[in-house]
């Protein structure tokens, strides 16, 4: 369902009610865009505006256009038609059911086939160190397992042309693989992050301050070079974690 | 006069959602008034008063709070009329899941907390199944998948309802709810309840405190499901 689309964010107001400096941002399919800014500055609120396809009817007054037009009211609410999949900060499950039951029910709510469930679990297990089984209870999953499961759920069941990611780095999950999996082919990915690897993997990043969009920075060649270097460091850290998790001895400095 | 009856489980965020909705209504030139019904105590009227609108508190005390709301509906409408309001928002205490306090010609709003888990919609009963609008709150505390599963469960028990995803902290959903209220029905005389209240009164209502079975009267139900009438 990754049809070519583009999103336009039309600026609204900041926390003081003043017009935000950036009046319009256009994002095309295949692009990864970062959202950066201090804690509490309104990054998640921008994500919420996109998720709801705001039409000047949220506290920020922003408007989101799809392919340059006002979206149909139906696609804002019906999960079967939803354009947007969201991986949120809150990842602990509250539903008291097994992984399998939950995924079946989610597939149903999105109008998808329930046979996708095993693929979700399989994919989730490529992102986390501790395997998830269908009979596990959702509420007993670790933070890393929950994030992996939701990432795979978005890639397989939600499979929407727009993916919003809020602070994916906060748990034990292979974040670059996760981002690549979510970005898929021709999707729009918007990622809220403080993580230098993820922020620099994006082609542009929107800077948020005091509830408003104040700047857009295009990732320079130099920043891309920095990104490659820190990815290596990051992968090394990840492999050290795995070594320690396995109960092995760390032997040498790479 | 439009009548909006807002019910929901305790702590689900009825008052917070209403506060944002009132602001959105006022921006649209509506004149809302609020009656807050609670059982024993409330200070929510202070929160409403800060919006500079007419507020009335009703404490049901010894009376069933839903019955109290229904019994006083005419008086509430009259009061709101006198205050120059054109929308009466009646927030109920909503404790009993056996009945629903919605008249036919009102906009019935059920507020439900997503963090209570996807089985909750099956437990809430007529409060949810006979509502026109179901407001899902605290969705920011769970994943999108869990919100969607919850939504599916709500639609299973109330297929015709409008679902609004709201956040009492940020005001998300308030504009949508205010729009639905603006296009809602006007209250009329001789309204009927949408759902039958529980069968007759029970002996606890009349002051019985003894636990032993022989002292109880009314329409009674055994643990095994057998139902009988005991009394005169």
UniProtKB/TrEMBL annotation, chain A:
SMART domains: AAA (SM00382)
Residue intervals of the ABC transporter domain: 2-236
Keywords on record: ATP-binding, Lipoprotein, Nucleotide-binding, Transport
Signal peptide (residue range): none
Molecular function, one GO term: ATP hydrolysis activity
InterPro entries: AAA+_ATPase, ABC_transporter-like_ATP-bd, P-loop_NTPase
Pfam families: ABC_tran (PF00005)
Record-linked PROSITE patterns: ABC_TRANSPORTER_2 (PS50893)
The keyword Isomerase belongs to this UniProt entry's keyword annotation: no
Family membership noted in the UniProt record: Belongs to the ABC transporter superfamily.
Protein's name according to its UniProt entry: ABC-type lipoprotein export system, ATPase component
Source organism per UniProt: Methanolobus vulcani
The organism's taxonomic lineage, starting at the top: Archaea, Methanobacteriati, Methanobacteriota, Stenosarchaea group, Methanomicrobia
UniProtKB/TrEMBL annotation, chain B:
Domain CobW/HypB/UreG nucleotide-binding intervals: 4-164
Domain of life where this protein originates: Archaea
Any coiled-coil regions, as ranges: none
Family annotation (Pfam families): cobW
UniProt GO MF annotations: GTPase activity; nickel cation binding; zinc ion binding
Biological-process GO terms, alphabetical: protein maturation
Alphabetical list of PANTHER family matching this protein: COBW_HYPB_UREG NUCLEOTIDE-BINDING DOMAIN-CONTAINING PROTEIN, HYDROGENASE PROTEIN ASSEMBLY PROTEIN, NICKEL CHAPERONE
Protein known as: Ni2+-binding GTPase involved in regulation of expression and maturation of urease and hydrogenase
